[in-house]
Amino acid sequence: ATYEALESAGARFERWIREASSEAGVPAQVHRVASMVGLFLTGGAVRDFKSAREQDGPAYGKLVHALLDRGVYFPPSPLEALFISAAHTPEVLDSAGRALGTAFGEVAA
After folding, report:
1. How are beta strands 36-40 and 29-33 bridged, if at all?
2. DSSP code at position 57
3. How far apart are CA 18 and CA 12, in angstroms?
4. Mind listing the pLDDT tens digit for each residue in 51-82?
5. Which residue intervals of the chain are DSSP H helices?
6. Which stretches of the chain drop beneath a pLDDT of 50?
7. Contact 90, 7 (CB under 8 A)
8. CB-CB contact of 25 with 10 (8 Å)
9. How far apart are CA 109 and CA 107, in angstroms?
10. Is-contact 100 50, C-beta < 8 A?
């Protein structure tokens, strides 16, 4: 049941990132395997290190700081992945999901 819950949480978090970035008009690519999520702020496909480095690093930094202001800790580098664990309760994940919308809005501003 734990792995199914992690898969579900990862899928929800991926959906929230995609929705928040889309609503804010911030191009984003999300790569996910179960509860491991990678986020790249670019409109182009990310297939290798070179394409990963072509993302908008300053925008990613702005996103990380906007999330930190809301108590959500994202990886500090856009080349790192985030991990959802069994310790992340639905309430914690819901709070992070709500923060994503506001944070992406700040990136777009």
Report:
1. antiparallel
2. H
3. 10
4. 999 999 999 999 999 999 999 999 999 899 99
5. 2-24, 49-53, 57-68, 90-108
6. none
7. no
8. no
9. 6
10. no
Written as six digits, the tokens of 51 are 């394409």
Structure tokens at 15: 């959906």
What's the pLDDT at 75? Answer: 94
77 vs 63: CA distance, rounded Å: 11
pTM confidence score: 0.91
3-state secondary structure of 52: helix
What token pair was written down for 93?
A: 């994940």
Tokens (6 digits) for 26: 């911030």
Give residue for tokens 């777009």: 108
Best CA proximity match to 46, nearest among 55, 58, 37: 55
